[in-house]
Amino acid sequence: MSVAFDTHAAVKRLRQAGFDEGQAEALSETLQGAVVGGGLAAKADLAGLATEAGLAGVKSELGEMKASLASKAELGEVKLGEVKAELGEVKAELGEVKAELGEVKAELANLASKAELGEVRASLANLATKAELAEVKIELKTELTQVKSDLVWLKRLGALIAALLAVPILRDLL
After folding, report:
1. Residue 143 exposure: Cα atoms within 13 Å on the Cβ side
2. Model's pTM, two decimal places?
3. CA 153/CA 73 separation, integer angstroms
4. Side-chain half-sphere of 61: how many Cα atoms within 13 Å?
5. Where are the domains of the chain?
C-alpha cells in the first residue's frame, strides 16, 4: 500500500520553521523516501500477517509443550509410585519388627530363671532398638513430606496442562 506525501507542503512548513531552501528540500525528499518507498506498513498490511500458517506453527509449538508437560507429569507419577512402594516396604518391615517384639515379650513372660533372661537379653540386642525405630519413623515422615510435595507439584502441573489445553480453544473462539 502506498502513502501520499506532499513535498511542497513539507518544504513550505520547514521554511516557516527556519530551515533554508536547500535544507528544507533535502529533508522533504528524505522524508518522502522513507514514507512512500521506505517500507512503512499500513493497517491493511499488518492485518495480513496473522496467517493460518503462523497460527499452525504456534499450535504446533503448543502441542510440543503439551506433550513435554505430559511426559514430565508421567515421570512425576512414576516417582510418586516408587516412593509409595518404598513406604509400603518400610511399613511392612516395621510390622515384622513389631511382631518380633511381641514374640520376645511373650517369651519374657514365660521365662523362669535369670539365665534364661540373659539369653533373652542377648537375642533382644539383635532386634531393632527403640532408637532404630525412631530413626525409621523420622525417615517415614521425611518420605511422606516428599510425597506431599510431589503431589502439590503434580496438581500445579495439571493446572498448567489444563491452561495450555484451553489456549487453542480460546484462540479458535476469538
Report:
1. 19
2. 0.28
3. 9
4. 6
5. 7-45, 51-96+130-173
